[in-house]
Design goal:
The complex is a heterodimer. By secondary structure, chain A is an alpha/beta fold. Chain A has helices at about 5-20, 25-45, 50-60, 75-80, 115-125, 135-145, 155-165, 190; strands at about 50, 65-70, 85, 105-110, 130-135, 150-155, 170. In chain A, helix 2 (about 25-45) crosses helix 5. In chain A, about 35% of the residues are buried. In chain B, about 15% of the residues are buried. The chains are: A alpha/beta, B mainly alpha.
């Protein structure tokens, strides 16, 4: 055995231990590297879509839509949009994003916008191409489509506090999740709103690889 | 962002890079003796463990380079393609390929290396590979449920064991070193009786 090959196991172990000591990039470090590319998009609000546009997407059978709800489970159980999937910020990398069709649209929502923005950043780091944020979150959706007689809005003080804490500003009498009428309003409800269409379904080249 | 060679060099330039990488890959495989089915099959009888050593050296080297590049911020790990896991179809496919490897003496890649040096067994193996691909394409509809079953998506050892990248890298390095030592031991043990038999 050549002399240098005797040292290789030690070199490999040192490199591996060095990797443990160095650690892997955190979410913040990764985001900082890409912030110059994506922060202007957030600042310009060009990825925030109106509830009316989301409702149109819900009824558009030509696209693959994923509504990602990052609210707490209790809020999700009380009310969510029909077919929405719940995800936790820290575990978004466990979704099978790479399996979505390349032109799929993902719309993230929280109660307001703060958590949805965090989720959107994580989706961009996971290379989800067509990711958008529901403007105003669940509260914005309910304000747009809920029947005030059925779903009560909290008073102004509670509403202001809710906005700070990302809590739901509407009160439901029971937790019926995605079965509430406002979970999927009639398609015509979107026509009553005026909004700028922002969703562009861009295709991304499929990645693949392998070895035989 | 991922290095997009087509954007950077145009399709012709990118194809030239692919050609150069393929050339290097084939050259290394042939240099390691992987164009010879007897050498490859000897692996399964513990007579020649070069395949294990070369493959694990490649795995460990690439793994260390990849994760150090990720740690230094040069490479985006989330942008690297990881073959999605379909557990049971993967196990079935692995068994079929393993049996084919032992009987035929090649895996698909090494059979191409063998064909490039005009070995007859390699040529027949490649013909079999193409026939198998055709047969699969024609019949996959009949077992599509199984083919798409037990889907786990992008699954890595870190996900399975809940360990950090660094710890997992260290464990794989230790496993590789253990396998190298074990392979040398087994080879030496088997070599002695052969030498005695000759004398």
């Amino acid at each position: 055995m050549k002399q240098w090959t005797r040292w290789m196991p030690i070199v490999l172990i040192i490199l591996a231990i060095g990797l443990i000591a160095r650690g892997q990039p955190s979410f913040e470090m990764k985001w900082n590297r890409l912030a110059s590319q994506f922060q202007p998009v957030l600042d310009a609000r060009s990825v925030f879509i109106d509830p009316g546009e989301l409702l149109q997407l819900v009824y558009d059978h030509g696209i693959t839509l994923t509504i990602l709800d990052v609210r707490p489970e209790s809020d999700f159980n009380v009310f969510h949009l029909t077919d929405a999937v719940r995800g936790e910020l820290e575990r978004l990398d466990q979704f099978h994003w790479s399996e979505l069709p390349s032109n799929a649209v993902v719309v993230v929502m929280s109660n307001d916008e703060r958590d949805a923005v965090e989720a959107w950043k994580r989706l961009k780091l996971l290379h989800v191409t067509n990711a958008y944020i529901l403007e105003g979150g669940a509260n914005g959706w309910l304000a747009a489509f809920a029947d005030p007689a059925e779903v009560k809005r909290m008073d102004a003080a509670q509403t202001a506090a809710g906005k700070q804490n990302e809590t739901m500003q509407f009160r439901f009498t029971s937790a019926i999740g995605g079965r509430h009428p406002v979970s999927r309003p009639d398609e015509d409800a979107a026509k009553e709103r005026s909004f700028e269409k922002k969703v562009q379904s861009k295709s991304q080249a499929r990645k693949s690889g392998g070895c035989g | 962002m991922p290095l997009n060679l087509v954007e950077l060099l145009g399709s012709t330039g990118a194809n030239m890079v692919y050609f150069a990488i393929g050339l290097a890959f084939g050259f290394i495989l042939e240099s390691a003796g992987f164009g010879d089915s007897r050498k490859l099959a000897a692996q399964f009888y513990f007579k020649d463990l070069a395949v294990l050593q070369v493959m694990f050296t490649a795995i460990v080297t690439a793994m260390i380079l990849v994760f150090w590049a990720v740690a230094l911020g040069w490479l985006d790990y989330d942008a690297i393609w990881v073959n999605p896991t379909y557990l049971w179809p993967g196990i079935a496919g692995g068994l079929i390929m393993g049996v084919g490897f032992i009987i035929g003496g090649f895996c698909p890649g090494t059979s191409l290396v063998s064909l490039a040096t005009l070995k007859v067994d390699g040529a027949f193996f490649v013909a079999g590979v193409f026939a198998g691909i055709f047969a699969f394409g024609e019949t996959v509809e009949t077992f599509t449920d199984f083919y798409n079953s037990s889907f786990y998506g992008r699954l890595t050892l870190m996900d399975v064991f809940g360990l950090s990248n660094g710890v997992m890298v260290l464990l794989v390095v230790l496993m590789a070193i253990g396998m190298f030592a074990g392979a040398s031991f087994v080879r030496d043990r088997l070599a002695v009786p052969r030498e005695e038999k000759r004398s």
